[in-house]
Amino acid sequence: MTANLTVATLAAYERWAPLYPPIPHNPLMRAEQAAMVEHWPDVKGRRALDLACGTGRYTRLLTETHAAHIVALDACNPMLAQVSGASRVRAGMMHLPFGDDSFDVVISGLALGHASDIRSWMAEVARVLGQGGALLYSDFHPEAARAGLPRTFRDQSGRTFAVPHRCYDLSSQQEAAAAVNLKINVVHEVRVGFELRERFSGSDEFYRRWHGLPIALVVRARK
Question: According to the model, what pLDDT value does residue 25 have?
Answer without folding.
Answer: 87
